[in-house]
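Write out this protein's structure.
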Amino acid sequence: MQNRMIWKTSKAGAISRLTLQSEPIQPLDTGEVLVEVKAVGLNFADIFALTGLYSATPEGPFIPGLEYSGVVIKVADGNNQYKIGDRVMGVTRFGGYSSHICTQSEYLQPLPLDWNFEQGAAYLVQTLTAWYALKELGNLKPNQQVLIHSAAGGVGLQAMQLASALNAKPVGTVRSSSKAQFLSDQGFHSVLVRESDFKQQLQSNKMTFDLILDGIGGRVQKDSFDALNPMGRLIVFGAAEFTPGKNRPNYLRAAMQYLKRPRYDVMDMISINRSVMAFNLIWLWDQLNLMQSLITDMQSISIPPPHVGHVFSFDDAHQALQCLRTGDSVGKVVLAVR
């Protein structure tokens, strides 16, 4: 029986528990395909899962990773959608840090002919997150003013691209001038380098918004909410302020941040006519028809391939996670499987 290489942790709580291991590839079930993985996309959810700060973290040992790309090398009976040799990109409810993945074909998409594997591993999760926030929850309309935090990151950059393609007016925020220059090089010139008093920064620039996408949390999130126009929506998809230390969370610091987190009173929101929505896409794994519909809709919007800013060898998963954790990355962080 052929073996596969996997990155696996014995249990959540510390990134250092993640080790490279070998295990047999299990036989395919009816309708499954076996994908030889060529690239793995990293997400902040991987870090939060490994440190036990993610609500969907499996109990006991698990393999992190939510998206990948590769080549179909085996097809079970009952599968008529893919054939051996097809280039694909896929999503998985954990298990992505692997050299081979057995999956039902419904969780795969054809890899565009002009995309490389790294771009394929960077597309589905971050673009679906941006699409769900902008369209499904945000109900984005042309000419609306949209504030997108962490705009040089994986989700943020895809949100900037989608908002522009949908004829909205995106304004991105970043924490450094180098990231602002990166966005300018990508064709985005409405960019703010966040200042310590973000509320004053917005007010001094007389900036208000119809829709805000936030994955940071804390003071930045509350200051953003205060800049919403009537009927405006704040869409929350993450909380980077809780990003753990290099190996494990600082539980005291996290507890203090939790106690000081923004809180919203629905009665106040009625009066000021603003709303807050929050989501976690992991639940879409069990809502397959909805997930496929959302992917079809977002693929109908023409945007450039995702920007892959950092490519690490599959053997260097710890270095790749550290690159993502620091917040210094631009675009997507990817593991290349050779």
